[in-house]
Amino acid sequence: GENVEQHPSTLSVQEGDSAVIKCTYSDSASNYFPWYKQELGKRPQLIIDIRSNVGEKKDQRIAVTLNKTAKHFSLHITETQPEDSAVYFCASTDTGTASKLTFGTGTRLQVTL
Amino acid sequence: NAGVTQTPKFQVLKTGQSMTLQCAQDMNHEYMSWYRQDPGMGLRLIHYSVGAGITDQGEVPNGYNVSRSTTEDFPLRLLSAAPSQTSVYFCATRPGGGGNQPQHFGDGTRLSIL
Questions:
Q1: Nearest-angstrom CA–CA distance, B61 and A36
Q2: Inter-chain touch A43–B41, beta carbons under 8 Å
């Protein structure tokens, strides 16, 4: 089955700096890669996703890049703000009807003033 | 629309007790799934369903049962609770037709087993 590895497990940045979280996956059939943000005590919420037919996607201060050859994808957050502090999860799946989402183990991002 | 509704929000059980975690959705999503979340381990898939009457096992199915008699509901049953099942449980849904669609999560059930 699919295996997703996520690094780093914790990340501390100063407000205004950029943050990068990296994930690798094992199944070459995977072609959908969402990122979720989870605030303390809350549900995971989708913040951005990318499909395998594109290499990069941006939404305001967040962007995701995908390298299918190397089987890795990354989340980039620019101009970080205190409200970006949360746990971020990457995930991957294929596009089959019964496809299952496999999650990374999470990155706790702390944005300090 | 309520989206994905999980009940209860919190529960404390004694070892050996049984209980059912409820998940209901009003988005007419065909795909429903249960995850457990433990510190440092991300979200792990317990069971999933691609439609009414169809269920299958995920990564960590042992100790849990599911059924899917309607599109809207996907209950998760613990037949004999064990301390190792202490966790936060999330139900998630997505439309049918393919995995490349966002999953929507409920607010979770925090379960403690003594």
A1: 23
A2: no
